[in-house]
């Protein structure tokens, strides 16, 4: 089957046809299309060639449509209406009527902290919407963002792909977290007491050592790491009722002191701060849905 030749198809021909069909006058159609009368006459000749039909025949001062014109006129009206309303006019985003899904990628830490508040805020702004949280990390966020069409990504991600933009949400600090019912530590926490107890680690790659161990070694100290987990929830459960201490982000630590009776202490060794960032595709930066979501995330996280 031979492929259709689009070379002679011009959207302006359809616009001119509609004007001629409505006015039945070459001069009036030319005015409607903001062209000269001779240009409209030339356009009519092109239309006749394209449709292989006279389309309009002169009858006195009017151009009367042929049977073929009457047949195609409703279809051309629908086509031009669809192009105008569905293709060329950008529809405004309304959270109140939005029935789609918000797709949000979060690192484990960000999900523990912000998922419930984000859900509440999004359902308040868009009651008919759905919320889907995806677990991401520094190494897989790009693949997941592409495969799952994520709207935004939230977390400590530094190796930013050039297709993404990022906004700084806040800078996170660290605290030590432990169960005061399981062990007693001095206040303020000394370096000697810090290394005298067994440690739990939140370790994205499962490693049993971090930069903290290198700093301790330079100071002439060594700590005992008993367990490591990628998941903050697992580490919190491990701390309960056990003689374990763990360095965790400050906001997570403060949340756990309120909800599970754990206690915090300032770290006696330097632990670098880290930034929590909001990532989104450059191609979405001006989309109203993306702007709305980014504002909600910013209000919640900051």
Automatic annotation (TrEMBL):
InterPro entries: LysR-type_TF (IPR050389), LysR_HTH_N (IPR000847), LysR_subst-bd (IPR005119), WH-like_DNA-bd_sf (IPR036388), WH_DNA-bd_sf (IPR036390). Residues 9-66 form the HTH lysR-type domain. The lineage of its organism: Bacteria, Pseudomonadati, Pseudomonadota, Gammaproteobacteria, Vibrionales. Pfam families: HTH_1, LysR_substrate. Belongs to the LysR transcriptional regulatory family. GO terms for molecular function: DNA binding; DNA-binding transcription factor activity. Keywords: DNA-binding, Transcription, Transcription regulation. It comes from Vibrio aquaticus. This is LysR family transcriptional regulator. Transmembrane segments: none annotated.
């Amino acid at each position: 089957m031979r492929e259709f030749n689009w070379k002679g198809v011009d959207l302006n021909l359809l616009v001119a046809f509609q004007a001629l069909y409505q006015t039945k006058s070459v001069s009036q159609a030319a005015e409607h299309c903001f062209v000269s009368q001779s240009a409209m006459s030339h356009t009519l000749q092109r239309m006749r060639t394209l449709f292989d039909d006279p389309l309009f025949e002169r009858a006195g001062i009017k151009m009367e449509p042929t049977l073929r014109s009457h047949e195609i006129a409703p279809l051309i009206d629908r086509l031009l209406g669809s192009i105008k309303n569905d293709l060329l006019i950008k529809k405004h985003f309304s959270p109140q009527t939005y029935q789609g899904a918000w797709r949000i990628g979060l690192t484990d830490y960000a999900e523990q902290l912000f998922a419930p508040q984000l859900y509440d805020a999004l359902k308040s702004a868009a009651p008919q919407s759905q919320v889907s949280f995806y677990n991401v990390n520094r190494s897989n966020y790009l693949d997941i963002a592409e495969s799952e069409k994520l709207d935004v990504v939230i977390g400590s991600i530094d190796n930013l792909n050039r297709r993404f933009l990022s906004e700084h949400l806040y800078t996170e600090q660290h605290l030590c977290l432990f169960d005061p019912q399981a062990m007693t530590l001095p206040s303020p926490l000394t370096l000697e007491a810090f290394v005298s107890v067994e440690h739990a680690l939140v370790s994205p790659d499962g490693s049993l050592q971090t930069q903290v161990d290198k700093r301790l070694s330079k100071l002439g100290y060594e700590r005992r790491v008993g367990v490591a987990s990628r998941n903050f929830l697992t580490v919190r459960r491990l701390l309960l009722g056990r003689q374990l201490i763990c360095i965790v982000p400050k906001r997570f630590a403060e949340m756990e002191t309120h909800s599970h009776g754990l206690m915090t202490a300032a770290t006696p060794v330097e632990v670098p701060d880290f930034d929590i960032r909001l990532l989104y595709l450059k191609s979405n930066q001006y989309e109203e849905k993306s702007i709305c979501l980014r504002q909600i995330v910013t209000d919640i996280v900051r």
